[in-house]
Amino acid sequence: MDAFLLQILNGLDKGSAYALIALGLTLIFGTLGVVNFAHGALFMIGAFCAVTVQRILNLSFETLDLTQKDFLGNPLKIKTPYIESWFGQDIGAAIIDWSVPLAILFAIPIMVLIGFVMERGLIKHFYKREHADQILVTFGLAIVLQEVVKYFFGANPIQTPEPSALRGSVDLGMMIGFQVNEIVYPIWRLVYFFFSVTIIAGIFAFLQFTTFGMVVRAGMADRETVGLLGINIDRRFTIMFGVASAVAGLAGVMYGPLNPPNYHMGMDFLVLSFVVVVVGGMGSLPGAVLAGFMLGILESFASTTWATTTIPGINQIIIYLVAIIILLTRPRGLMGRKGVMED
Amino acid sequence: MLGLNKKDTTLLLVVAVLTLFAPFILNPFPTDSAMAQFNAGYPDLMQRFIIFGIFAIGFNILFGLTGYLSFGHAAFLGVGSYSAVWIFKLFTYNVIPAITLSVVIAAIFSLIIGFVSLRRSGIYFSILTLAFAQMSFALAYSVLSNPKFNLTNGETGLQVYADDPQWFHRDSLPDLPHLFGLSMNSTYTLDVGAWRFDFNAGYYLCAVILMIVFFLAIRIFRSPFGMMLRAVKSNQQRMNYTGLNTRPYTLAAFVISGMYAGLAGGLMAAMDPLAGAERMQWTASGEVVLMAILGGAGTLIGPVLGAGFIKYFENIFSKINDTVLHSWFSFLPDGIEDFMVFIVHPFIGKGWHLTLGLLFMLVVVFLPGGLVEGGQRIARLLKGKKKTPPSDGEDHHPKKPPHVAE
């Protein structure tokens, strides 16, 4: 039982990332009808927003400390981040320590802006083209974004540590009545899970309970009619693109501490999150979230020693295997709507 | 000739001349001149042009004719490579059985994968093929290389070792892939003045095979079968309503293109007896999609052009470094020279992928028909004929069959 619970927990962090990316993809697909292969790149850019914030906060000036000598006998150079000199050492160090959560504030406007630019500058021209063309142009864009990031940040993974208060593990099992040390879980993974649940809930609430969301849902159901009612649906869809881009970016920001960001992390997630979207059913938001968590957890179950000794290699193919089975038995994925992407 | 009309015969002849004289055509600059780095006439690169050309022609038979976008074609290439290397390991270094087996195995593989994947269309088909290819990649990379059952040799890649049986190998034969004793590596070098031209046996084997498969592709494009595939692309629903089962046709196209990929994989192993799992990864599948689109999907010559274009620039761009750039811009004043080098720097060397991505976006945005359409537009401009392209807006008309080869 405890092993079972532990595997579910282990699947949650990856599942959360899948669910967030797939949610954004589905938002874009459901509203604009565009298959966005650059979505993984947005996730990656989000992660690099955190890297950028960390670097900005760590900008330092050097002072010479004449009382101490370094090993060459010269006066010791001491680096002081500007932040520390402005706000005092304690507050400054705390701000630097919390750079990843702080990056959220930085990432939201950046990602929304990138989303707007992408939609207005490029994707707008592809609404009437075939899906294959959309896939190809966004794929090209993904390569470009990836290479630009590589140019500025290099090819090596960059550490973006979580705040020290949230480092380490927590004994979850003890809280719900298991033995000590039976279910120990890293805190940041838990944070990531709750963060993604909050965002997912926020998106659903936004679509369900606001007028704006209502209009967007109406537009997803029947774009033409909404347009005929005198509503500028295009502008709302552009905003939704920005929102989807921000969701992917935030997923990336918070994922940094789990897995140091590198320039190709987007591509690695892209393929899987497309599988997730298709398994969930193109155009279905709950489907995307469900499939994201489901595949994440299945992947974690398949990685257990028991599974890999029974069927060698199952941990690497489980997602694809499940995708094939689901697509063949349920043509539209788990919760797909009729008539979406069937041409 | 050979059952082709005049235009196709010309096309075939052009391709034949281009491939046969490629060592000359691709080596326009004297060997020791500053421009020599733009020469592409060395065997290794020329072989890659041809092999990826074959791969792209095959992919185009599926994507260009039926519109089914497969994102897993590299799997067949990888399977072809593995089977060829196994022939080398077990039986002989002769390339004929190796290439034959790689085509057969790829055909079986694509029959199975195609049979399952073609039950869905659109993006579902793309994801299914992608899933199968990624599964093959993951399995080849890890599980199929365990000590008990080592089929792929995992990360190292499958290669021929000295203690392999090679039952039909004799000492008189070269210790490398060969064609009845003619080593694929043997190169005849011709020096003409400042120029040096390499004629490589492996390249010419590839070239002959390319001509054969290109001819087959023309015949498929012009046959009733090819017509049927185009009908599937323009409106599959209508085909179904007329009582026609399209599945056998699409499956046949899928298997044919899988065989082309297997052939390419076999040739790749024949040129360099090594097979690695990374050949099956989805980025490799993406590459062939890029080639077909960049050259012009649905046209005969387009994929070959696209393959040549990408492979050429990949090689040439990635070789250029800052020193070369400085020598190019040396005629400019120093400040401007440095500025130009600074501007161009991200796009060359390791940044070649950036150039590729940009180029690819530009092609998809402005030239949906690829290089072939670009060529046609230029030709039209030169002739001075102004033809307005037929408008394709009205949704209630069936879509016009997109750029089918003339």
Descriptive labels:
heterodimer; A: 343 residues; mainly alpha; two-stranded antiparallel ribbon; 15 helices; B: mainly alpha; ABC transporter involved in vitamin B12 uptake, BtuC; two-stranded antiparallel sheet; 16 helices; 8 strands; globular; transmembrane transporter activity (chain A); BCAA_transport_permease (chain A)
Report on this model:
Chain A: Pfam families: BPD_transp_2. Chain A: GO terms for molecular function: transmembrane transporter activity. Chain A: It comes from Antarcticimicrobium sediminis. The complex is a heterodimer of chains A (343) and B (406). Chain A contains 15 helices and 4 strands. Chain A has 343 residues and is mainly alpha-helical. The longest helix of chain A has 31 residues. Chain A is globular and about 75 Å long. Chain B has a domain of 275 residues: Orthogonal Bundle (ABC transporter involved in vitamin B12 uptake, BtuC), CATH 1.10.3470. Chain B is globular and about 70 Å long.
* Uncertain runs of chain A: none
**What is the percentage of strand-forming residues of chain A?**
5-15%
| Helix percent band of chain A | 55-70%
Order of helices and strands of chain A: HHEEHHHHEHEHHHHHHHH
User: H/E element string of chain B?
Assistant: HHHHHHEEEEEEEHHHHEHHHHHH
What gyration radius of chain A follows from the Cα positions, in whole Å?
A: 22 Å
Assembly status: heterodimer
Alpha-carbon distance between the two ends of chain B: 17 Å
GO biological process, one term (chain A): amino acid transport
Keywords (chain A): Amino-acid transport, Cell membrane, Membrane, Transmembrane, Transmembrane helix, Transport
InterPro entries (chain A): ABC_transp_permease (IPR001851), BCAA_transport_permease (IPR052157)
Subcellular location (chain A): Cell membrane
